[in-house]
Amino acid sequence: MPDILLYAVTSILYAVIGLHFWRTRWTGGGETEGSAAGAGIVSWERLAILAPFILHSYLLYLSLFAAADLRFGFSQAMSVTLWLTVLIYWVESLIYDVKGMQALVLPLAAASALLPAFFPGPETPAYTQAFAFRIHLMVAMLAYSLFTIAALHATLMTVLERRLHRGKISGPSGESLAGPWASLPPLMTLEALLFRIITLGFVLLSLTLASGFVFSEELFGQAARFNHKTVFGVISWLIFAALLIGRYGWGWRGRTALRWTLAGFAALLLAYVGSMFVLEVILGRV
Fold first, then answer.
1. Are 105 and 152 in contact (CB under 8 A)?
2. What single DSSP character describes residue 122?
3. Does 1 or 80 have the greater pLDDT score?
4. Beta bridge partners of 71
5. Rounded to two decimals, what is the model's pTM?
6. Could you count the other beta carbons within 10 Å of the beta carbon of residue 211?
7. Which of 83-92, 198-207, 267-276 has the weakest average pLDDT?
8. How far apart are CA 189 and CA 186, in angstroms?
9. Which residue of 23, 141, 193, 194 has the smallest Cβ count within 10 Å?
10. 59: helix, coil or strand?
11. How far apart are alpha carbons 120 and 1 in whole angstroms?
12. CB-based burial of residue 250 (10 Å sphere; 0-12 exposed, 13-18 middle, 19+ buried)?
């Protein structure tokens, strides 16, 4: 297990940069040239995000690949998920005009990067050392990460939509937005991006479940084991499948789509992270 100091430095760096984005994009305080609420991410900010991200990458490598025995519990799942979330948002900021989201993502990354230092996770069975299983795990965590981003988008869109309906901010045509709303694209753009993320996440979740069934058949002689991961994993898959069918078949959007997105994410969270948290922390079964 790497020294706790390295975990602490990584977490603090994420938190400091997150605070910077919060002050400059969300509260309007401490603005500097090139980092005002309406501005995109400037070069020094991109480099600043990379500093804790590289440390985070090193910590994950040490604990998940360099370690003799793989330990993987709720804390590792959260850490990997937010690591991938930071990476995807960093790349996404090069392509899409989505600003202000770092103030939400980086504090979560700060907390998640620190978790493995206090919750090292249970020892995993010998079969988890297989390369094929590592690929299965990576695909699963990438799916988790994409749905984490989708949940963040859905939460933000819900708040934005409510403010629009209450008249606290104007619509997308010629209005002057203030604070965090100035750093966000229109709802239509966020919605289109949301469903691109959900569609890709659904494909990866399908691959995760399919490969999980294959492993279960080979190792335990049955296609699926009846446990929390299987039940909630299948429930989340059904929810997202229904959401995508509703979207592309009947044009679901707005509050209906947002509620289904958050419900699917909640089920997915319970599929592994939630159940492992109960087992490791509440019940003490490490």
1. yes
2. P
3. 80
4. 123
5. 0.75
6. 17
7. 267-276
8. 5
9. 23
10. helix
11. 8
12. exposed
Q: Which residue in this structure is represented by tokens 């479940």?
A: 209
| pLDDT on residue 114 | 94
User: Amino acid letter at 125?
Assistant: P
Specify the residue for token string 């070069």: 43
The answer to whether the beta carbons of residues 151 and 265 sit under 8 Å apart is yes
HEC assignment per residue over 184-201:
CCCHHHHHHHHHHHHHHH
Which of 262, 26, 265 lies closest to 158 in space, CA to CA? 262
Q: How confident is the model at residue 35, as a pLDDT?
A: 47
Given a cut of 90, whether residue 27 has pLDDT beyond it is: no
What is the rounded CA–CA span in Å between residue 44 and residue 258?
Answer: 34
Instruction: Compute the mean pLDDT over every residue in the chain, rounded to the nearest whole number.
Output: 78
> What is the reported pLDDT for 107?
94
Rounded to 5°, the CA angle 200-201-204 comes to 90
Residue with tokens 């869109």: 157
Amino acid (1-letter code) at residue 257: A
DSSP character for 29? T
According to DSSP, the residues that pair with 123 across neighbouring strands are 71
Half-sphere exposure of 4 (CA within 13 A, CB side): 5
Q: Which of 164, 212, 225 is nearest to 190 (CA)?
A: 164
Q: CA-CA distance, 195 to 240, in Å (whole number)?
A: 10
Model confidence pLDDT, tens digit, residues 168-218:
555 444 444 455 565 566 777 788 888 989 999 999 999 988 877 777 655
Rounded to whole angstroms, how far apart are CA atoms 277 and 270? Answer: 9
